[in-house]
Amino acid sequence: MTKPLIVANDIAGLGKVATAAALPLLAACQIETALLPTVLLSSHTGGFPDVYVEDYTQGLQAFLQQWRSLEQDFSALLTGYLAGPEQLSSILDFAKEKNLPLLADPVMGDKGRLYHGFDQQYVKAMRQLVSQAHLVLPNLTEAALLLDRPYSGELLPEAVLEEICRELAGLGAKQVLLTGVQTAEDQIGFAYYDSETGSFCIFQGSRLPQHFYGTGDMVTALAAAAFIQKVPLEQMLPLILDFVSRSLLSTVERGADLRLGVFYQPHLAQLWTDFQRLAAVDSRCQPRLKHPRPSLGHAAG
């Protein structure tokens, strides 16, 4: 049994995003978790009116204070939506004290814009967190903010994606997983860079026209599971694309309100089987692919 993974993210009462999206996937990958709430919401903010939002900074600090007093080991610390620089500082201090690998989804913005309530002070604080991360998982907007470079849209050539990944690694992160990348209008997926080996890979699949909430959280959770179980991301990313693709098709076929999140439940058993197969393989015996063939799927991030 692995030591618990700390999941620092918001908790929404309605809508399967953030923590609600991640926990079942981590459980399917046999990952124990410790929850560190950052913000409490009555629903996520993507399309629902009159959302109740409570900044949970005081509670987060109380959680960490208790955990410092316990003889409890953790495997890593995974960050998602954080309420402000104070939370970033508290989390970074705790990770350093406990010598925990940081897995950072630097949630700050999308489509070239910062999310409401964030400013350049927050970007600076996030840059500091990312500099200490083992794995960072930004979308293209967040990558531009972290690097202080112009946002150039979602459709970019492979050479530019590799340049962005290398620059992000230059901030200090050992591995970079750039999400929501497109090299063609009908494709979407990831660009992955490992600074220790110099390996750069692009994984893409078919892009669906609908907007799905929580897909980025799904990708982050599964990438974190791979990190904890020592499954190389080059091997995990095709599995993630396939799982997300099948889940999105099930969501569309079900015809439910897309604001409620992705209907991935029918595919959890297959996820468990596929992940256990990867986790059982000695990764030292696996080749590292430079440019693997794209797998069908869709992932927004």
Automatic annotation (TrEMBL):
Indicate whether Nucleotide-binding appears among the record's keywords: yes
Annotated TM spans: none
**Which UniProt keywords are listed?**
ATP-binding, Kinase, Nucleotide-binding, Transferase
GO MF entry, a single one: kinase activity
Q: Tell me which residues make up the Pyridoxamine kinase/Phosphomethylpyrimidine kinase domain.
A: 64-255
What EC number(s) is this enzyme filed under? 2.7.1.35
Matches recorded under PROSITE patterns: PROKAR_LIPOPROTEIN
Q: Does the keyword ATP-binding apply?
A: yes
Protein known as: pyridoxal kinase
